[in-house]
């Protein structure tokens, strides 16, 4: 009889619309809460993954910023180094030009000196001819 009573009470419960609706709502609530719990767990996992990505992006951004700073400092150092180098190159060019000018000036002075010496030799030769010419003419006569 217990089985008949139990079956009868199930039938009563199933036939009562309020109990039926309440049990459906309770079942859906239970499934919903379970799925929310799963969703919260998945959401937490996704949130942690996103947080990890954000942290990695920040670290990458910091690395890029550091790299840009190093690049900027390197360029500044190169520019500082280039200025004395350019100055040295200009001084070297000026020295070279001055050296060429001095060499050309010395060559010109040497040419002038040789020309003067040749003129003097020409004058000595003419004086010797003028001095010796009457004596040679007298000897020939």
TrEMBL record:
InterPro entries: ATP_synth_F0_csu_sf. Keywords: ATP synthesis. It comes from the Eukaryota. GO terms for biological process: ATP biosynthetic process. Belongs to the ATPase C chain family. This is F-type H+-transporting ATPase subunit b. It comes from Vigna unguiculata. The lineage of its organism: Eukaryota, Viridiplantae, Streptophyta, Embryophyta, Tracheophyta.
């Amino acid at each position: 009889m217990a089985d008949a009573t139990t079956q009868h009470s199930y039938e009563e419960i199933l036939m009562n619309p309020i109990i039926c609706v309440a049990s459906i709502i309770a079942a859906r609530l239970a499934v919903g809460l379970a799925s929310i719990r799963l969703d919260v767990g998945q959401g937490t996992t996704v949130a942690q993954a996103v947080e990890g990505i954000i942290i990695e992006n920040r670290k990458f951004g910091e690395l890029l910023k550091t790299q840009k700073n190093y690049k900027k400092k390197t360029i500044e150092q190169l520019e500082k180094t280039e200025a004395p180098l350019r100055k040295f190159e200009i001084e070297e060019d000026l020295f070279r030009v001055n050296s060429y000018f001095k060499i050309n000036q010395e060559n010109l002075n040497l040419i002038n000196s040789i020309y003067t010496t040749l003129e003097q030799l020409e004058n000595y030769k003419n004086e010797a001819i003028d001095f010796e010419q009457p004596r040679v003419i007298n000897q020939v006569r």
